[in-house]
Every structure is written in structure tokens, then in C-alpha cells.
Amino acid sequence: MADSPEATETSKPGMKKNVALLAMCQALFNSSTGVVLSVSALVGLALASNKSLATLPQALQWEATAAFSIPLAMIMRRFGRRTGFIFGALMGSLGAIIAAAAIFRGSFELYLVAIIFFGAYTISGQTYRFAAADVADEKWHGIAISLVIGGGVLAAFVGPEISKWTHDVSSLWLGNETFAKAIELICGPGIAAAATVPGQNPPYQFGGTFIVLAFLPILLIFMVSLVGFPKKEEQKFENSGRPLGEVIRQPGYVVAVLCAVIGWGVMVLMMAATPLAMVKEYGHTFVDTAFIAQWHMFGMFAPSFFTGSLIKKCGLLNVLLAGLVLSSTAALIGMSGGTIQHFWFANICVGCGWNFLFVGATHLLTKMYRPEEKAKAQGMNDFMVFQSVAAFSLSAGLLQNNVGWTTVCMLLLPCVAIVFVAVLYLKFVPGAAPPGLGRPARPAAAE
């Protein structure tokens, strides 16, 4: 029984408290990324001379995320989880400051530099799910991962609300002499005067957003310092385990990566294209796009409160299949129209699909490596996943600008179908999945 005395006695010390703190850290992290999710494509659209490059910042963010994945894994292995999380948070705060400066200077290139710092912040935030497995007993891994990812449900409301509150406050703040002098010292003279130029409505859009965003990672540093991570000396091993190539060639590892790639890829492609499609193609307002982003993030994180239990009750591979069905449903709804209702239903479905795929893929991945192989297995997984996500993100702007929303949604279906077949292979081919997930290996024939 999950709640038996034996289960309580074998629980890692402070497990419930640490999982709760990590869920709060995830909420703070996703509040930051929720802001960027809401505004980044529109900032790119405003700053880039070539409007097809509007989602280049998001693509570069995922490229930087992939690039930092293995170095961050090594930092965490050498110095511990806490150090890696603090490093990522500092990069996020610095990136927000540079992004604000880029907006005040009107520099697309400087905004791209800021996004690179967000890449380091992003990959550190994606590691909270692995930290959940570190602080929980093995039998609770699925639920702990699910609950920590579920902490992001708070961000569904905080992030987009921050973007709505701050997207046009720069001109008001520039009316304050002290603030105006500080901005002009950093960004150059004439900033405050330009805020009053007719025709700029709103001036320096989202500059204030990133100024506010710089403070969230600082709060996250305080929160992560309270988590009781396993002591570093408990993570030392006599050897590094199997060669990396042997680890990543396992069918279960391959399927875990594919599910994460498609879960993220479909979600990012739809969400990056959504504000562009809503504003440019269908004539909706920024407030409408923020509303859709809000419910999209709710769809991403709310299921986490029961995804872990669903995995235990229905089976991990069945949850992955359900996530793929939800992702394809989102694409079909997106193809059927461009009203607020269509965007709302499509983005909730793709968010839920992402949740099932991401939680399930993470849980599956933890079964594919030994303790001494954790850092390299997790680092390579994140590197491959976020390199792929970068390609999906860049494609969003190019595809949306050239072929439109309906075609964007249509192109997602073959990707989902390929991964659906891969999960079925793991489910039905004897011995392909880890014990207890698929069909057992056939017993050897009698001599």
C-alpha cells in the first residue's frame, strides 16, 4: 500500500517538504517563462526588419537551452543541484535586464543576446523535474515528477497577467525622472523624449515587462536555497557506468526522447505561431493572445496533479498514447477555424498533450539509466530534445508567415503519427520496454 507504515519509514527525509518547495520553484520559473511565452514573438515582430524572423528569438532560446544542457548537467554533478539552479536563475535575471535594454534601444540583435542568457535559465528550470526524482523514493518518482511540473499551474495565471499589466507601462515609468535617467544611462540619451513621439503606441512595448521579469529569478534563488537536496558525497560512484552510446540506444530511451521532442515540438510550434496567427491573420488583440496563453499554460500544468496517479493506474505507455491523441486533436481543432474558441480549445488540448508526454517521457527516462549514468543520460536527453524544439520554434515564424495557421496545424499530424507507432512498438514488442511497462520478454526456448 502506498500509505503503509513501511512506505513512510523508507521515505527519504523531508520528501514531502522538498517536493512542495520544488513545485513552488517550478511555479516561479514558469511564471517567468510564461511572460516570455506571451510576448517574445510579438517583441521579435516589432524589432525584426524581416517579419519572418519574429520567432527567431524563441528558436535561439531553445538552441541556447540545448547548448547549456550538458554543461549544466556537469555543473550539477560536480557542485550539486542547488548551484546549478542558482547559476540558471542569475542568467535569467541578467537576460531580462539585457532584453529590456534591447527594447529601449530598438535592437533586435541585442534582444537575441538576451535570449541566450534565457537559454541557461530555461534548461536549469527544466531540471526541477529530475530533482524531484532525487528527493523522492523510487516508488514515488512518477507522482513527485508530476507534482513538481504541476507547480507551473500557478504560472498559467501569474505569467500572462504580468505581461498584460506591464506591456505598455514604459511611457508611464519614463515620466519618473529617476527612472528615465537610469534608462538613459544604460541605453543612451533620448529614450524618455522618444516616449512622447506621436504614433508610438505603446512606446517601448514590453520594456517594463522584462524589468519586472528580472526580479522573479532572484526570488527563485531564495526558494531553492530551502530545498534539502541529497548530499553531494552521496552521489559519488566508483565508475561512470555504461558508455553513453549504449545508454541512448535502448528502445526505451529512444522512445522517451521522441515523446519529449514531439510533446515539446507540437506545443512550441502551435504556441509560437498562435500570437502571430491571432494578431496578423485573424485580427485578434494582444489581450486575446494573453488570454489564450493563460489557458494554454493551464492545460500544460493542471493535469500534473493527477498525471502521476494516472500513470500508476493506467500504465505509463497508455498515458503517452493519450498525450499523442490530445496533440493530434489540438492540430485538428486548429485546422478547423480561427475564432477565439478554436484557439482556446486547440491550445488547451496541446497543453494537456504536452503534459502527458513530458511527464511520461521523464518518468520513462528515469528507468533507462543507472544512478552513476544519471548526469550524462539526462544531459544528452535535454540536448537532443531542445535542439529539436529550437527547430520547431524557428519553423513557427517561417511557416506562419508563408503558409498560414491551417497548414501549420496540418504539418503536425505526421510527426505525431510517427511517435505513436514508436510507443506501440515499446508496448507490444516483447522485452522492448523496461520490466513492467510493456510485454515481458519471451522465455528462452527449451534445449
Q: Can you describe what's shown?
A:
By secondary structure, the protein is mainly alpha-helical. It has a single domain (14-167, 205-229, 243-428), classed as Growth Hormone, Chain: A (Up-down Bundle). Helix content is 75%, strand content 0%. It has 22 helices and no strands. The chain has helices at residues 5-10, 15-47, 56-79, 81-105, 108-126, 128-135, 141-150, 155-166, 170-174, 177-187, 191-194, 207-213, 216-224, 244-248, 251-281, 286-301, 304-314, 316-335, 340-365, 374-402, 405-410, 412-428. Helix 7 packs antiparallel against helix 17 (304-314) and helix 17 packs across helix 19 (340-365). The longest helix has 33 residues, at 15-47.
Structural class: mainly alpha
- Radius of gyration, whole Å: 22 Å
CATH topology name: Growth Hormone, Chain: A
Quote the beta fraction. under 5%
What percent of the residues sit in helical stretches (DSSP H or I)? over 70%
Stretches where pLDDT is under 50 for at least 5 consecutive residues are 1-10
| Overall mean confidence score, pLDDT | 81
Number of domains: 1
DSSP helical segment count: 22
CATH homologous superfamily (4th level) name: MFS general substrate transporter like domains
Largest sheet: none
Instruction: Spell out the helices and strands N to C.
Output: HHHHHHHHHHHHHHHHHHHHHH
Q: Supply the CATH architecture.
A: Up-down Bundle
SS elements, strand count: 0
CATH level-1 class: Mainly Alpha
Instruction: Report how far apart the termini are.
Output: 41 Å
Shape: globular
